[in-house]
Amino acid sequence: MKKLLITGASGFLGWNISQIAKPDWTVLGTYFIHPLTIPHVTLEKVDLTLYEDLKRLFHDVKPNAVIHTAAMTDPNFCQQNRSLSHNINTQVPINIAGLCSDLGIPCLFTSSDLVFDGLHPPYSEDHEPSPICFYGEHKAMAEVGMKDRYPSTVICRMPLMFGDPGPVATSFIQPMLHAIQSGKTLHLFTDEFRTPVSGRDAAKGLLIALDKLPGMIHLGGPEKISRYEFGRLMSETFGLSNARLNPCRQEDVKMPALRPPDVSLDSSKARVLGFNPRSLKEEIEALRVAGPSENS
Fold first, then answer.
1. Which residues, 6 or more positions from 81, have their beta carbon under 8 angstroms from its beta carbon?
2. Coil, helix or strand for 195?
């Protein structure tokens, strides 16, 4: 089978992609901080910021396609560590695009809905990026830089994701569940809207994009929802009747990075290609039935 290189295979999204891709690809993945074992996946520790190490990886692996998921994803941390964020979230992707160009192989980059300012939803692929934090800015810069280096690069803008966390990563839903089950009060925004999707459906969408090579595509979920309403839906589905959810507004919580109010994605282009994510209730119910991951 052809070889698929997944950077950041230890992360939430990278791990989910490896699960979905294994039947059709020989999967090779990278990690840096968190060592792990994924059955039937070859993993290698690589510091992607070291260009010579990155070149050696491509030379040794000789991949037939690359999905680049490795990133620094905490907007607040990125806001306080601008240079590091730029190196990891902008320069590394551009370097990877260049190496994919040298080999003439498909290169897929996972960008973010946070490249938008949240003032003109829903966002289609035709909307110009308008980031309001360094994380979104660096992702948007990576999009441009990768396309300049390798015009065939596929840009997939991803929404908020949740689901099975895998061996060493987590999604935003696990800390929420733990807090609720511990009797803590969750302060959740009523004025921040996203189009969440499960990690499993996100992985399926990325593999569709890798097959179809659409150039630019949005892989948002089917429903627009606030953080507060998501918390309510999750609590109801898990039967957590004693959940302490406090509705609040973005302005009530001061954070280093500004948060856009509504970055809902218009993913109709992806639907035409076959991307068909399940409803939030179906995905949360599946997570409840499955229980804690064997890998987590």
1. 72
2. coil
CA distance 55 to 118: 37
pLDDT digits (tens, 9 = 90+) for 107-143: 999 999 999 999 999 999 999 999 999 999 999 999 9
Distance between CA 280 and CA 278 in Å, rounded?
A: 7
Domain locations in the chain as residue ranges: 3-162+197-222+265-277
Architecture of domain 3-162+197-222+265-277: 3-Layer(aba) Sandwich (3.40)
Tell me the pLDDT of the chain averaged across its residues: 95
71, 10 Cβ separation under 8 angstroms: no
User: What is the residue type of 226?
Assistant: S
Entry pTM: 0.96
Could you tell me the CA-to-CA distances from 234 to 77, 110, 133, 180 in Å, in that order? 27, 26, 28, 10
Residue 109, beta-bridge partner list: 68, 155
